[in-house]
Amino acid sequence: MYKRYEQLLQEKGLTSYRVSKDTGITQSSLSDWKIGKCTPKFDKLKILADYFNVDLEYLTGTSDVKNAANAAVKEAIIKKAFKVPVVGAVPAGIPLEAIEEILDYEEISEETAKKGEYFGLKIKGDSMYPFIMEGDVVIVRKQDTIESGQVAIVMVNGDEATCKKVVIKNGGIVLVGHNPEFTPLYYSAEEVETMPVRIIGKVIEIRRAI
């Protein structure tokens, strides 16, 4: 126990005299613990653990985790950093207004998370069938440009969202569904600017419940 106590003194830049003054534990008691003359009682150990803001188990050397509660919080924060919110119910047919509420969360890898900012969107409709089906969640990397032929989430008229393959054509764009029953939607360069038609992200992954 005393070895861990000395380690904490060094880390905090404190002296036993300072600890004694702050906690009310006599210096003679601290000295007796050091030479093994006696064993500290539980109440004194608890005072020291609280003083150093560590768990009792850490102070006594039975654990290497200084503060289990803080460690759990930090772990939760780290895990949360790699979860993306699933927002809105985005139709894969005629564009409908995206819902703002968070429906769920999906996990992404740390490697993926380092490459940008992401969100998930739940698909409604079957214009992208069978590539993307109703109820699927698409993981989207936020970006405002897209290469021709890639699948993106596109905002139309500023408040409508749709999931489509984007084809660049004659300065404008064509929103194409995989389902042949749906007619491609063409927007001229002027319409892209005035409506506007805006790319809000690239679909990088599809999550499908079995």
From TrEMBL:
Pfam families: HTH_3 (PF01381), Peptidase_S24 (PF00717). Residues 7-59 form the HTH cro/C1-type domain. GO terms for molecular function: DNA binding. This is Repressor LexA. It comes from Dielma fastidiosa.
